[in-house]
Amino acid sequence: MAEASSVPDPSNSFFYLLRKGNMSSASAALGNTLLAIVKGIAASMTGSGAMFASTMHSIADAVNQAFVFTGSVLAEKKPTRRFPTGFGRVINIFCMVAVIVVTIMAYETIHEGFHLLKHPAESHGFLLNLIVLLLALATDGFVLIKAMKEIRHEAGIEAKGLALLPAAFRNVGRAAPPTRLVFYEDLVATLGALFALVAVVVTSLTSFHQIDGISSILIGLLMVIVAFRVGYDNMVGLIGVAAPRDVEKKVAELIFAESNVVDINKMRIMQEGRYYHVEGMIELRKGLSLADADDIKFSVRDRLLQDPSISDVNLGIIEDNGVTDWVDEEEEEQSVKETVK
Fold this sequence. Notes:
Blueprint: H1 14-20, H2 23-46, H3 49-74, H4 90-118, H5 126-155, H6 164-171, H7 177-205, H8 211-239, E1 241-242, H9 245-256, E2 261-272, E3 275-284, H10 290-305, E4 310-319, H11 329-340
Parallel strand pairs: 3-4
Antiparallel strand pairs: 1-2, 2-3
Helix pairs in contact: 2-3, 2-5, 3-4, 3-7, 3-8, 4-8, 5-6, 5-7, 7-8
């Protein structure tokens, strides 16, 4: 009997994975590379310390986001026999490398800031600095808005206009690690461009040249905050973290949509990258045949897998034990509050 030929999985091909990579980090990497070149030229021509700090920040962002995009591409690889749960946590490793780069650049920026405080430098080329920083502000602002829209998409929320920013802050924890990194970094980049813009204007109009150093230190400190925040998020991701409560509630609703399911005996949902792994034991009404119970289990599993954020479902089935095991934590907390009142 002839051996079946192995057909390569098209969903693991390089170009397919490239298209599935995080587009926020890809566009941010490209934008920051161009900004770093322009800012570097401006800093060398004008001697502006604030422009130097902004250049360092753009270099750090470009390197980080290139790393993160690469990680997001690899994280999309399908599970294999050797790695049965997939490659979702690969992105956390790449983000941790990005944190190291940010930390080094932050140190250099703060060090340069203190140097400028002790030895203020005379900068010139006000118009060039102004044009470059306005360009940086527009570019970083555009990438930040794109990241906020990506958070909206990944979190499955509705928000438009001015409501987009607070919605992004509230739901950033539900976004994929690369989207979170782009959001935090470009938030700091936008603020950094503003600080640098203020410093350039003040140094050109007044004799208070120490603001160059102050601006550099502030930008460096913002980079440190981003490094710690992103580092913590990805450390938690590498250890393994439970899905947010609203994701758990949505999964429970999908399970209970099957009329023969009477209870959820136990359930665990783990988050890996931007995907979720669902494990649970569901209770079915009494009197079902084994064949019918199996059909119901597979029906529930298929319904859960229709959600693009759920990559793996492992369900067990038992007969109804007459005890309510699944209680919505939010409803339980609300009930306790009303009882106390």
